[in-house]
Amino acid sequence: MKTFSLLLTALVSAGVAAAGGDETPTSAPKTQAVVVGTQETIKLRQGWFEEKGGSHLLLLSNLEEPSWKKIQPGETLLVVVVHGEVQPGNFTTKGSGEAFRKLLERGELDPTQAFSALLYTNTSKSEPVFLMQILDQALKGKHLLSSGAVTVRGSPELGRALLADFALVFDGVSVAGRVSVRSE
Amino acid sequence: MKTFSLLLALLVCAGAASADSETGAPKTHAVVVGPEGTIELKHALFEGEDGSHLLMFTNVEQPNWKKIQPGETRLVLMVHGEVAAGQFTTTGSGEALQALFEHQELNPAQAFSALLLTNTSKSEVMLLKQVFGQAVEEGKHLLKCGALTVKGTPAFKASLSADFALVFDGFSVAGRVHEGSE
């Protein structure tokens, strides 16, 4: 749980919307995702990119001004964690709470656990939900992906650069997205 | 290539099939995320031939399933006909596509395959036959890796319910199929 705590500390102390929305005037956001579900398609465009505990951490929301610490009513939040030592290549996983925990807590790279993710929509009409609460539930196996695939390109640098396309399947929902982050 | 010919013959006689849910969201659809933005694929063809569920998605209103029009984006998804409910992942290749068509036994690593193509020509139509040929023989247009969750009890040529997520070269795709299981 040490890494988990560090991750939360980072979210509390950092500002809103760090790198990730590295947009050019005429093109789509370089970091974005689309959620395809039974009711509608949800576009996630606000990106947060950080390094903590040896992993790339990416958060995407459908809100214009997400808090990141709290998930607002109606907000959909996607958290993608990619192992910090991952190299260019194709990776797949069948997610579980155990895989998520190992990815956050272990130092060694296991190709079958190169990444993990969670997806959560706050269906309440008035009550925000703390991200800490959702991450805690994720460690118990909730909100986690069923299976997924990631193609990492370029030369990832922990906490500085990550270029990847990802495709994730959750319970009844699938997500396609891309991250293109390079901190100067 | 016998399978390939049969598949094309099927496309000649098959009609388009798309379904809407009570909520208005299509039951079978997909979204492509790429460097230029997102592309919605809503018109779907669902068929079965040679041991595989075959799904085709497009962004044009009146697709010709045998031809890919200029500007059209086409997704072809193939799922092994004997697949049961469960989670599957794959790292795609031309070999995987060929194996999906030709192997009788179900290999979980080859439970599904897909290809994605946008006809960037301004005037030239592409034949699906040509695109399939490139996929099988040259490995073009094929997914790099992907994930599929099959739900319920699929019935070959009759029903398939699944969520899928695919990564191609510089593109990712999320989608769902819910066909024939009312």
3D structure, described in words:
- The complex is a heterodimer of chains A (184) and B (182).
- With 184 residues, chain A is an alpha+beta fold.
- Chain A contains 3 helices and 12 strands; from the N terminus they run αβββββββαββαβββ.
- Helix content of chain A is 16%, strand content 42%.
- In chain A, the strands form 3 sheets. A 6-stranded antiparallel beta sheet of chain A has the order 2-1-12-11-10-7, with no helix packed on it.
- The longest helix of chain A has 12 residues, at 2-13.
- Chain B has 3 helices and 12 strands, in the order αβββββββαββαβββ.
- Chain B has helices at residues 2-13, 94-102, 128-138, and strands at 29-34, 37-41, 43-49, 52-58, 67-68, 73-80, 86-90, 112-118, 126-127, 145-155, 159-168, 171-179.
- In chain B, strand 11 (159-168) and strand 12 (171-179) form a beta hairpin.
- In chain B, helix 2 (94-102) crosses helix 3 (128-138).
- Mean pLDDT of chain B is 83; it is low at 12-21.
- The chains are: A alpha+beta (184), B alpha+beta (182).
- The A-B interface holds A 27-28, 30, 32-41, 43, 90-94, 146-151, 165-170, 172-178 and B 21, 23, 25, 29-38, 40, 87-91, 144-149, 163-168, 170-176.
Features:
heterodimer, A: 184 residues, alpha+beta, six-stranded antiparallel sheet, four-stranded antiparallel sheet, 12 strands, globular, B: 182 residues, 3 helices, 18% helix
Summarize the structure.
The complex is a heterodimer of chains A (184) and B (182). With 184 residues, chain A is an alpha+beta fold.
Give the helices and strands, then pairings:
The complex is a heterodimer of chains A (184) and B (182).
Chain A: H1 2-13, E1 32-36, E2 41-44, E3 46-52, E4 55-61, E5 70-71, E6 76-83, E7 89-93, H2 97-105, E8 115-121, E9 129-130, H3 131-139, E10 147-157, E11 161-170, E12 173-182
Antiparallel strand pairs in A: 1-2, 1-12, 3-4, 4-6, 5-9, 6-8, 7-10, 10-11, 11-12
Chain B: H1 2-13, E1 29-34, E2 37-41, E3 43-49, E4 52-58, E5 67-68, E6 73-80, E7 86-90, H2 94-102, E8 112-118, E9 126-127, H3 128-138, E10 145-155, E11 159-168, E12 171-179
Antiparallel strand pairs in B: 1-2, 1-12, 3-4, 4-6, 5-9, 6-8, 7-10, 10-11, 11-12
